[in-house]
Amino acid sequence: MFLNTLTPKFYVALTGTSSLISGLILIFEWWYFRKYGTSFIEQVSVSHLRPLLGGVDSSSPSNSNASNGDADSSRQSVSECKVWRNPLNLFRGAEYNRYTWVTGREPLTYYDMNLSAQDHQTFFTCDSDHLRPADAIMQKAWRERNPQARISAAHEALELEDCATAYILLAEEEATTIMEAERLFKQALKAGESCYRRSQQLQHHGTQYEAQHRRDTNVLVYIKRRLAMCSRKLGRTREAVKMMRDLMKEFPLLSMFNIHENLLESLLELQNYADVQAVLAKYDDISLPKSATICYTAALLKARAVSDKFSPEAASRRGLSTAEMNAVEAIHRAVEFNPHVPKYLLEMKSLILPPEHILKRGDSEAIAYAFFHLQHWKRVEGALNLLHCTWEGTFRMIPYPLEKGHLFYPYPICTETADRELLPTVFHEVSVYPKKELPFFILFTAGLCSFTAMLALLTHQFPELMGVFAKAFLSTLFAPLNFIMEKVESILPSSLWHQLTRI
Fold first, then answer.
1. What is the predicted pLDDT for the residue at 67?
2. Contact 434, 444 (CB under 8 A)
3. pTM
């Protein structure tokens, strides 16, 4: 009887009012999302309702503000999309080629290898190479595209004299094991030191000798660094640390090689966190360019102080302590610098072999960092759990990262294009800056508004047909209840059921 008394005007008014209310909610939600970067309904639910229901608030630390010292780092001049040599790049012969033999895939792109060829020509050659036959051969060898032609040229140069760059090429590309590469690098060290001493005595005798001395210095630094990396890979980590420290003291001005990143990784392997902090204090400076290694190692050290006792449930009830706030701020700072790293550390995305060149703040740098540092995060109890609970809060803090940053300059737009050149996209999906998805409640209210508006329009145009549909829908909706009522009537005595209905 109630449904029969309802007129089409009632249905039009009902659906129209619902559409108006949901439209107003949608407009308010959209305005709040544009201004604060989060959904109002979602924020209220997470902040007030979930703790009452005993839920976990994994995003509550996301609104923490960064320290003033880190804010000043946004003043540094950052060269967008500048490609850097990977400080921890692998050996072609002993590691990259071994991957190719096993899988049949090429881990390095042509663009990446071409950049390496340019680096070799810049660091290992000079204008006076034509004066020494072996160096003249190696000058041509570094330009060769065919690996076998380069190796043959290196052997040819060694037949003439002990050539340090020839040993370097063989250690990098012909040696199939790290031990063999280390042996060749030790031979290169002897030849490189003798050339360095000779050129050091003549460096002030003209521009030609200065260029030769600069080349011999680059060769010597490269050999010593690779020897330290061989020691690290062969398990002699303390020896590697000593070699890196000596190298940094001997050539303090060659910071462009980023030897401190190799040192940080080796110290983390030794779990010598005090020395790691000392290195960070020197290189995590406002005047120096940042890297994922610097930012995420700083976050790991601060997370280590609180991660073993951190609980999202407890943090949502009592709030964050000062130490926990510092750790969360450090994680937000690291994620803002390179947002691709957490997916690899949390193993949400599979790793591949790191390229020989990386793009700071890009996917290539994230792969290179996680490839070597994932084990260090796993070693610190609870560090990955703290990262999992807090890293996504960075994106709420920076709703428009391509236009405005918080601690750093806006995220460069060109990173995706450069990463596609550096990474083998055939078997790896390049990670892009996490796009901010619209919250569920905005999508829900938009759908509800559209649905009720459509119902209002259909009811206005076809009132009788929509009335039939409404009655059929309500009848179907209440069918289970009617079925239960009929069963109850058949089971209970009629007198008792009559008294209950009267009540």
1. 40
2. no
3. 0.70
